[in-house]
Amino acid sequence: MKLLNNRTLLILLVLICGYGYFISCTRDNDLIVPVQLTQPFVPNRGNNVHLPGNMTTGNADEWKLDKVHSSCLWATKYVGAAGLLTGRFNQFGTHDVTAAEMQNYTTTGQPLLDNSWAFYESDPTQTFISGYVQINTSNTGEPGRDAGCNVSGMGTTPIVSGTQNLTVTNLAKIKSTKVEFDPNSNGYIVTLDLTWQGKLAAPLTKSIVGKLNYITKATIASGTPYDVFGLQLQFSFNCRDFGITSTSIADQIDIECNMNFNNK
Questions:
Q1: In DSSP terms, which residues pair with 104 in a beta bridge?
Q2: For each of the chain's 264 residues, which pLDDT tens digit applies?
């Protein structure tokens, strides 16, 4: 009888200990706080303001496009293959080209002032940008293609030496209509009007959305010091909207404009 009582007591103690452990584990779990792995983005923007003014040489308050160190690149998928077709436009600028200015210019330099832009780092409502490319200056590195199917396929005319062709059939233009902060980065979301005739009977304007990044102002200390900054604009459009029917390229064309400026 005494042995039975001892066994009963032992079983009772084991059950009590197990229950206590279970309760303690349950309470510990109640105190666990989930870890937030992804922290919300915190913007880090300054108050830089960059304006072209009259683009006067030597005026450090007036910023000039450094075209030599800038680029306007394009890329699209080569249909039926895994690789990309890529190229650049050799002639481009940051000017809001009016109808009266759409003509041929006998010059090898910039035919129009690169002054149709303004950048306010902390106030995108005051930021704007306009620009253009000369379609027939598309450069893939393959002269036969650049002077051949690229010209005919995009509805333009061959390059004339010493002439900058800003006529309506050779001009693609962009003009921002809204710039706002990107909530997920230090960049900006830009709504643009893209105007191009392509192979249509008349120019067409399409509204597209792109991304604008600011490369912060820095000082070049060699020789006479001067400042530089950059703007990188990326957007895409559907070339079929502009009458491009080539089956060698995909519908979507990706554009990247890398604009560098200095105040020399």
A1: 165
A2: 444 456 665 565 555 555 555 455 555 555 566 666 777 888 889 999 999 999 999 999 999 999 999 999 999 999 878 889 999 999 999 999 999 999 999 999 999 999 999 999 999 999 999 999 999 999 999 998 898 888 989 999 999 999 999 999 999 999 999 999 999 999 999 999 999 999 999 999 999 999 999 999 999 998 899 999 999 999 999 999 999 998 889 999 999 999 999 999
pTM (global) more than 0.90 = no
Single out the residue of 183, 260, 264 nearest to residue 217, CA to CA. 260
Beta bridge partners of 211: 189, 234
Residue with tokens 């009259």: 54
Helices (H), 31-129: none
Residues in the chain: 264
Contact 105, 163 (CB under 8 A): yes
User: What string of DSSP letters covers 207-229?
Assistant: EEEEEEEEEEEEEE-SSS-EEEE
